[in-house]
Amino acid sequence: MCPPSSGRFLSRRAALQPPGANMNKDYSINLSVQQVLSLWVQGEATLKHFTEMWYWVFLWCLFSSLFVHSAVGLLMCVTLQRHKRGRLITLVLISVGFLASLGGGVITSAAVAVVYRVAGKDMAPLEALVYGVGQTALTVIISFSRILATL
């Protein structure tokens, strides 16, 4: 029996593939922030790889969370400007909230990408936007509701 790295194994494997199977395939992965923000996919119009799906959903979650936390931070600074330690409290709360939503975004984006890969489906760029912004929206809704207080 030959080891998997031998030429014999590779030639057998190549013989099983149809002729021209590796030609004209685009293996590029769309991991540019500019592509994500413009919803433009290089090559075909869908995201096929797990890494692409995870990255696109995560970046939309990151940017929408950054937008929400920036708006809330500005509101807190204006509201607590006369407080003795208002700016420090604002900085600590915003940074902790953003880091918590960042950690949750990494995990939930990976879960969405795994479900799509296991199902064998491709993801449209608009779906990545909906999932990413939806994660932030659900975080805001759960944060303002009293669901966590009942647990």
Automatic annotation (TrEMBL):
Residues spanning the signal sequence: none
Protein location: Membrane
Organism listed in the record: Danio rerio
Principal place of residence: membrane
BP terms from Gene Ontology: negative regulation of canonical Wnt signaling pathway
Family: Belongs to the TMEM170 family.
Gene Ontology cellular-component annotations: plasma membrane
PANTHER family: SD17342P (PTHR22779), TRANSMEMBRANE PROTEIN 170B (PTHR22779:SF4)
Topology of the protein relative to the lipid bilayer: Multi-pass membrane protein
KW Membrane (keyword) present: yes
Transmembrane segments: 53-76, 88-116, 128-149
Coiled coil: none
UniProt KW keywords: Membrane, Transmembrane, Transmembrane helix
InterPro entries, per the entry: TMEM170A/B/YPR153W-like
Protein name in UniProt: Transmembrane protein 170B
Domain of life of the source: Eukaryota
